[in-house]
Amino acid sequence: MSKTVAVVGAGVGGLTAAAELRKVLPTEDRVVLIDRSFEGSSGLSLLWVLRGWRTPEQVAVRPTPTALPGVDMITGQVERIDLETRTIDLGAAGTIGYDALVIALGANLNIARLPGLADAFDAGVAGQFYTVDGALDLHLQVEALESGRVAVLVAAVPFKCPAAPFEAAFLLADQLGQKLTTGAVTVDAFTPDPLPMPVAGPAVGNALVEMMRAKGIGFHGGKSATGIDPKARTVDFGDGTTEAFDLLAVVPPHSPNAAAASTGLGPNGWIPVDPATLATTAPGVFAVGDATALPLPNGKPLPKAAIFAEAEGEVAAHQIARYLGYDVPDTRFTGEGACYVELGAGLAAKGEGNFLTPPTPQVSLREPSTAYHDEKQRQERDWLARWNIRS
Q1: Three-state DSSP class for 266?
Q2: Which domain of life, per UniProt (predicted)?
C-alpha cells in the first residue's frame, strides 16, 4: 500500500526534506509539500539587500514543479496539525492525511511582543532586516540619515541567524562610510546576550566585539529591551537604563508558528527533537529548522540557522524512509555548520565548527578575507539556481 509523506513549510529545511524524500521513497509513495505561497527569498541574501548590493527580485526564491519533480506542491495555510488523526488542516482548502510528517514551519516575527515597536515602525523611526521588503526599506532609511545614532537592537532571544544583527551593524557602518568615520553618525549594537553568538563560545564572541570596536561600532551586552518610545526615540531596558537612538535597526521578537504550536509537542511552541534523528515524541513526526528546540550537550539550544536546517532536512528524509520500513542509510545530524559575517568592502569572516561536540560546541572564527565573501556568494548562487528552475 502506498504511503503519503507530508512536509509543511517550504523554507530551507522543508525544500531540502521534500527533494530528498522524493529521491529515497518509492515512486508509488506520495510526497506532499505544503506552503502558504511558495514565494520567499534567500535568507543569506537579506543583509546584502540591506547593504544595497541586491534587489528583492535578485534574491527571490520561487520553487517550481520543475525544481521538485514528483513532489505535489500544495498552496495553503496550515491552520492546525492533528497528531491523533494524522491530518493537516488547511482551513477552507480542506485536510490532508499523512503517514509521516516533517514540520518545517520556521519562526514568525512577533512585533507585538515588544511594547512600542509597532508604533516605531509606523512612525518611520525603526526598521528591520528579517524580510526582503524590510531590508530594502531600512537601507533607504540609513541612506537618508545625515547625523545621529543608529541602534541595532536584538529585541529578544531566540532569533534566526545568530550572526545577523552584528553583520547588520558592520554593513550599516560600511554603508554610512564617511558619515561614520567623521562621527556624524554612530552605530551601536544591543543584545540580551552577554556576547555575540554566545553558543559559539566566548572566544568567538569576544573576537566579534573587537572587530566591531575596530570599525567604530559600540557593543552593549546583557541589554534586554522592555519597551520603545517612538516619540522620544528611546529604548528602555530591564536593567533600568534607557538608550536614545535616531534610527532603530531591530531584530524583532520571534515566536513559534501557531500550527507547529498546535501539535502540543513543545511546552512553549518550539518543538523538541532528537539531536541525531530530528524525531519528535510523536511517531512518524519529525521537525527541522527554526521550528525546533534541538538541545546541545551543554543544555543550550542549537542556533536557528539555514545551514543546520538544510542538513536536518536530509536527515529527516532518511529517517522517515526508515520509519516507513525502507532500506536507506541511517543518516544522523552531526552538528557541523558554518556561517559568514560580512564586514563590508568585500570581506567576510567565517565561523565554523561542530555544535554537538561535548561538553561545549567547538567553533572557531576565521579571519576576514575576500575568499569567504566569495564562498558566501557561491552559496547564494547555488541555492537560487537550485529552486528557481523554469521549464
Answers
A1: coil
A2: Bacteria
9: domain range? 4-36+76-106+257-323
Residues whose CB falls within 8 Å of the CB of residue 371, separated by 6 or more in sequence, listed in order: none
Phi then psi for 65, rounded to 5 degrees? Answer: -55, -30
Q: Does some domain include residue 352?
A: yes
What is the residue-wise DSSP string for 168-181? HHHHHHHHHTHHHH
Those residues with Cβ within 8 angstroms of residue 150's Cβ, 6 or more apart along the chain or in another chain: 142, 172, 176, 185, 186, 187, 188, 245, 246, 247, 248, 249
Structural domain includes residue 159 = yes
Rounded to whole angstroms, the Cα distance separating 249 from 187 reads 10
- DSSP-derived letter for residue 49 is H
Q: What is the pLDDT of residues 139-197, one digit of tens each?
A: 999 999 999 999 999 999 999 999 999 999 999 999 999 999 999 999 999 999 999 99
Are residues 233 and 169 located together in one domain of the fold?
yes
Which of the four pLDDT bands, split at 50, 70 and 90, describes residue 19?
Answer: very high
Q: Indicate whether 374 belongs to any domain.
A: yes
Q: Does residue 391 carry a pLDDT above 80? A: no
- 245 touches 150 (CB < 8 A): yes
Q: How many CB atoms lie within 10 A of CB 73?
A: 17
Split at pLDDT 50, 70, 90, the class of 92 is confident
Instruction: Clarify whether residues 165 and 218 are in a common domain.
Output: yes
Question: Contact at 8 Å (CB) between 229 and 244?
Answer: no
Same domain, 306 and 206: no
CATH number, position 186: 3.50.50.60
Percent of the chain residues topping a pLDDT of 70: 100
Element (H, E) at 48: helix 46-51
Question: In the listed set 269, 300, 323, which residue is the last one of a domain according to the structure?
Answer: 323
Query: What does the pLDDT average to over 120-135?
Result: 98
Query: E strand or H helix at 160, and its extent?
Result: none
**226: which residues sit within 8 A by CB, 6+ positions away?**
115, 236, 237, 238
Q: Is residue 329 part of a domain?
A: no
| Mean pLDDT within 62-74 | 96
